[in-house]
Specification:
The protein is of the alpha+beta class. The chain has helices spanning 85-95, 108-117, 135-140, 145-152, 186-201, 214-231, 237-251, 295-310, 384-399, 402-406, and strands spanning 2-5, 15-21, 28-29, 34-39, 44-48, 53-57, 64-66, 70-75, 204-212, 257-260, 263-266, 272-274, 276-278, 281-283, 286-287, 324-328, 347-351, 354-361, 364-378. It folds into three domains: 2-75, OB fold (Dihydrolipoamide Acetyltransferase, E2P); 97-144, Irregular (Dihydrolipoamide Transferase); 186-406, Chloramphenicol Acetyltransferase. It is built from ten helices and 19 strands. α7 crosses α9 (384-399). The strands form five sheets. Strands 9, 12, 15, 16, 17, 18 and 19 form a seven-stranded mixed β-sheet that branches. Strands 1-8-6-3 form a four-stranded antiparallel β-sheet, with no helix packed on it.
């Protein structure tokens, strides 16, 4: 018999949550077949079966267990044979639904509730197996308009002594109304906990500026085809922003710093985190030594990390150790926001959508593509002058892309 042990998923992680059992208790599993998905506060991963045999589960979905804990075992055994026809018939008979007098499949509890509500079962769409009406369906059921009118109509018409007010119009609630309840994943709980902690433990402020994207858009339009042909990747905006931030971070090291106890750490390198939205939540993979990469290398790194993030294949080491973060709410249409710092970093840059706006250029009004930028920073380590100067420097580099190449 082989035990199923929770493996180590990172240095700082001491516990994980059982997200999903892909197999049921008593199922036969093959060796290396995925049987369970676990979630940490950083990512999720699948556990393979250590051997072939019968699965014996000892930890339930949603349980939080320590690293090294035994969550089940696999007993040696052969794959069970297909059930005989007699056995199948017996199973069908046991699970056979109860039929109402109107030949509608419904459980006894559901029929009782429908009778109390005077609701015809034939007007209800069941959500159970083969259209079976469940107790929950019956509890959520509402009488149709025809039933409401029929039930409220008097059997006989009494002589009217006076003019009566018209009966109120009954508008039944939609049968599609429902409320779902889903348990928070370990990743979502950790995101919530960390965001609240940032608001409570940092002196976070946000400063804003705007950047004229005309120069970058013209540069992309001129060279995007030759760039893609040579480097096999498109030239996006993110590489320009990453490069501009790296130059500005070297000039304003406090923005690239961190507080550790009573000391301030300053880094002579720029490990830039790029916020990526995934089906399970926001993750921030890190581009190492971004200050030494070309625009093409940055674009390739972003594409690779973002793809693996959305596929749930990022390693923990790829999401740790960043010194600065960039998040782009503009891809979802955001005009302006105040991004929250990714602790223990001291600042985060928020990009937004590009909108054509009238601008005063050399005494004339012209329409220019404008993006608002937001820099949230920890005022404990970054002063207002430094934050404003950093964002102004990023603006200068982006509005004159030649500065990025000449480093001036």
């Amino acid at each position: 018999m082989s035990q199923i042990v929770v493996p180590s998923v990172g240095e700082s992680i001491t516990e994980v949550t059982i997200a999903t059992w892909m197999k049921k208790n008593g199922d036969f599993v093959n060796m290396d077949e995925p049987i369970c998905e676990i979630e940490s506060d950083k990512a999720s991963m699948e556990l393979p079966a250590p051997q072939a045999g019968i699965l014996d589960i000892s930890a339930s979905e949603g349980d939080t267990v320590d690293i090294g804990s035994v969550i089940g075992s696999i007993k040696p055994g052969d794959k069970p044979a297909t059930s005989s026809s007699n056995g199948s018939s017996a199973a069908v008979n046991v699970a056979a639904p109860v039929h109402s007098t109107s030949s509608v499949m419904a459980s006894p509890a559901a029929m009782k509730i429908l009778n109390e509500k005077n609701i015809d079962p034939s007007t209800i769409t069941g959500t159970g197996k083969s259209g079976r009406i469940t107790k929950e369906d019956a509890m959520n059921a509402r009488p149709s308009v025809t039933q409401v009118v029929t039930q409220s109509a008097p059997l006989t018409q009494a002589p009217k002594a006076r003019v009566e007010a018209p009966a109120p119009i009954v508008r039944p609630l939609s049968e599609a109304r429902s409320v779902s309840k889903n348990k928070m994943s370990a990743l979502r709980k950790t995101i919530a906990k960390r965001l609240v902690a940032v608001k409570q433990t940092t002196a976070m402020l946000t400063t804003f500026n705007e950047v004229d994207m005309t120069g970058i858009k013209e540069l992309r339009a001129k060279y995007k085809e030759s760039f893609k042909e040579k480097h096999q990747i498109g030239l996006g905006f993110m590489s320009f922003f990453t490069k501009a931030c790296c130059i500005a971070l070297e000039e304003f090291p406090s923005v690239n710093g961190q507080i550790e106890g009573t000391e301030i750490l300053h880094f002579n390198y720029c490990d830039v985190g790029i916020a990526v939205s995934t089906p399970k939540g926001l993750v921030v993979p890190v581009i190492r030594d971004a200050q030494s990469l070309s625009l093409a290398s940055i674009e390739k790194s972003i594409r690779e990390l973002a793809t693996r993030a959305r596929d749930g294949k990022l390693k923990l080491s790829e999401m740790q150790g960043g010194t600065f973060t960039i998040t782009n709410g503009g891809v979802f249409g955001s005009m302006l926001s105040t991004p929250i710092i990714n602790q223990p970093q001291s600042a985060i840059l928020g990009m937004h959508n590009i909108v054509d706006r009238p601008m005063a250029v050399n005494g004339e009004v012209k329409i220019r593509p404008i993006m608002y930028l937001a820099l949230s920073y920890d005022h404990r380590i970054v002063d207002g002058k430094q934050s404003v100067s950093f964002l102004k420097r990023v603006k200068e580099l982006l509005e004159d892309p030649a500065r990025l190449l000449l480093d001036v």
